Amino acid sequence: MEKYLDEIEASLDQRKVTDPITGENRAPDERFMRSVEEKIKVSESGKQSFRQEVIRKAMVAFKAGEKFRLSSHARVREAIEQYLFEERRDVLRLVTSTARPDDEARKKISVVQERLVKEYGYDEHSAQEALNYVTTLLSQE
């Protein structure tokens, strides 16, 4: 969530983003932003207004002394969740393929669950429920 917000803010301000790994300044990652936005069918022509809407809601939360969370914007939540689940599909398939995951599988599941909590605003219970829901969907494929 934070990465997406940082990228769209830099894009709208027409400024560079500091890469968290290398520390170098770079242009906003348009491919990443579009890959998130395409999950909820934001068109190429509508991306600018969608990004402005997201930043506006983030600023409203900031001014109210609140943190902008996934629950603050339903469409962003849906897009980030879909993006995250697509990116982690291999781990989720691992969960569906094993009725009783071994230690390695449990570690991978735990990493995904921790990421949902730390980076996407889930609480522990919601992260587990989301994983259970997705594994149910994937097992139907």
Give the tags.
mainly alpha; two-stranded antiparallel ribbon; 2 strands; 67% helix; 141 residues
Q: Describe it for me?
A:
By secondary structure, the protein is mainly alpha-helical. It has 2 domains: 2-63, no CATH class; 88-139, no CATH class. The protein contains 7 helices and 2 strands. It has helices at 2-13, 30-37, 47-63, 74-87, 89-97, 103-120, 124-139, and strands at 17-18, 25-26. It has a two-stranded antiparallel ribbon. β1 and β2 form a beta hairpin. The two termini are 27 Å apart.
Layout of strands and helices, then pairs:
Blueprint: H1 2-13, E1 17-18, E2 25-26, H2 30-37, H3 47-63, H4 74-87, H5 89-97, H6 103-120, H7 124-139
Helix pairs in contact: 1-2, 1-3, 5-6, 5-7, 6-7
